[in-house]
Model the fold of this input.
Amino acid sequence: NAGVTQTPKFQVLKTGQSMTLQCAQDMNHEYMSWYRQDPGMGLRLIHYSVGAGITDQGEVPNGYNVSRSTTEDFPLRLLSAAPSQTSVYFCASSYSGGQGGYGYTFGSGTRLTVV
Amino acid sequence: GESVGLHLPTLSVQEGDNSIINCAYSNSASDYFIWYKQESGKGPQFIIDIRSNMDKRQGQRVTVLLNKTVKHLSLQIAATQPGDSAVYFCVVKGGSYIPTFGRGTSLIVHP
Done:
């Protein structure tokens, strides 16, 4: 089925470790983004991309890196994990630009715990 | 920037009742509004959207109302069912690519 695929679903890291959260979509969407969701909070935007080779920071980018070498993939890298990065991470994609639809398709999430 | 707030963090209703979930926004330039439903352990799912040139849009059992004068929108769910139990987010967009999510209202449907 078409959609957004995130891996892994669960991950436990030790403080200081690095890792990459994977996100892939097969809908040929230009726009992709990463959000984090903490208890009682809405989703907060970490980084986003409006096309291959183009990325930009969102609301909470510190401690995270992204790259977009292909339309399909948008990995999120944690450089040196900290307990404050314990959260559920969602990747989303959509068609972008102009007055087109901005509805997002979300992945099922990665639950990350940093100890 | 945009700020988005929901009036109630939790809404409890009886099965079969109509539910109304409210959302307020701050930026009068916002032009696109989306409601998402998030079930436990899943990512948000698109429910319905509305553009600023409309004040009402209906879907299957759901209606979104937009009042630009007071910068308020609402999601109405008719004949609420147990499967409607979830957290509902309103999302507000202006001219940028960055949407703003509200904190969510948890809808609890009692059988």
